[in-house]
Amino acid sequence: MSEAGGQSRATLWVVATPIGHLGDLSGRARELLETVPVIAAEDTRISRRLLAQRPTAPRWIRLNEHSEDRVLDEVLGVLQSGLDVALVSDAGTPLVSDPGYRLVSAAHAAGLRVSPIPGPCAAIAALSTSGLPSDRFWFEGFLPARSAARRRRLQALAAMPASIICYVPARDLVEVLDDCITVLGADRPATIARELTKHHETIQRGRLAELHVFCRDDPEQGRGESVLVVAGSERPPAAIDAAALAAELALELPPSRAARVLSKLSGLSRKQAWDLVERHRADKPGAAIVTSDD
Ligand code: SAM
Fold it and tell me: Measured in angstroms, how far is the CA atom of residue 220 from the centroid of ligand 1?
């Protein structure tokens, strides 16, 4: 039980665990996992390995993507009875491409205390060693497994002016890099961070085309787990020709809707957008001779 605001309240601890090297389990995480009465874990066989020193077994609750909804009430019930619960995933930080979101959200909604024991996360470990801009980044998680859907998703990310972090099983690296080259261009800088903190750790930087060759020619690169970090776009987003857009919208929509859409897309104020749409309205005399050069 934990003291918070002078009141004794049970806590849902969200505990990060190693992504490879077991020495990365923090002192706080170890202490908690050795004493907490209940542990909600994705795979209890994997998490058990972290508790070699624990004299008495905790109560285990299996919480994975299939069981999360089913065990939610059970975990909330444990917390409401006054017992702390530790949430762990197989590796890294729970909820980061791992289960736990619905539990944490429900715990907040029930007025329970939620507290992190921060630590390893493959996305952050990869970003921080990638040599790519880290001031702004987009965490994409897993890309779609099928190439067509993956290319569509990459298209949606192509203009993002921030480093993009993707979780990629190493066996898919060649295929994923192939799609990245098609959509983002062969010259985009990127880094592959594979088997981080493990014996075969590899952190390889290069243009997408270079990384493609690197992975294709070395079968070792197809083994284990990897993170692909791709540099953001350096091209500013294409400028919108507000007058041309106003002319199109005025043809297709009633004026007030056209002005609203124009304002949203162009960044013009509602008044400016309205004035521009008014100038292009087809039902106004002279509208047909107004062009985007006016
Ligand atoms: N919650 C975890 C975290 O905080 O990083 C991520 C879990 S997600 C199910 C697993 C993915 O994380 C793997 O497919 C891989 O992309 C990445 N990953 C996990 N451990 C890794 C490691 N040691 N090296 C590189 N990538 C790793």
Answer: 18
pLDDT in tens, 174-191: 999 999 999 999 999 999
Q: Kindly tell me the sign of the dihedral angle through the C-alpha atoms of 127, 131, 137, 141.
A: negative
CA-to-CA distance for 133 and 161, rounded, in angstroms? 10
How far does the centroid of ligand 1 lie from the alpha carbon of residue 166, in Å? 10
Q: Whole-model pTM above 0.90?
A: no
DSSP 106-143: HHHHTT-EEEEE----HHHHHHHHH-S--SSEEEEEEP
Give CATH superfamily name and number for 11-120. Tetrapyrrole methylase, N-terminal domain (3.40.1010.10)
176 lines ligand 1 (CB under 6 A): no
Give the confidence band of 44 by pLDDT, cuts at 50, 70, 90: very high
Domain at 123-230: CATH code: 3.30.950.10
Take residue 94 and report the two structure tokens written for it. Answer: 């729970």
Residue 207, beta-bridge partner list: 189
Q: If 0-12 CB within 10 Å is exposed, 13-18 middle and 19+ buried, where does residue 37 land?
A: middle
Q: What digits encode the pLDDT tens for the residues 4-41?
A: 444 458 999 999 999 999 999 999 999 999 999 999 99
Question: What separation in Å is there between the alpha carbon of 20 and the centre of ligand 1?
Answer: 9
Return the structure tokens found at 215: 């992975």
CB of 202 shorter than 6 A to ligand 1: no
User: How remote is the C-alpha of 238 from its chain's centroid?
Assistant: 26
Distance CA 131, CA 127 (A): 8
Find residue 45's DSSP bridge partners. Answer: none
Q: Is 119 in the pocket of ligand 1 (CB under 6 A)?
A: no
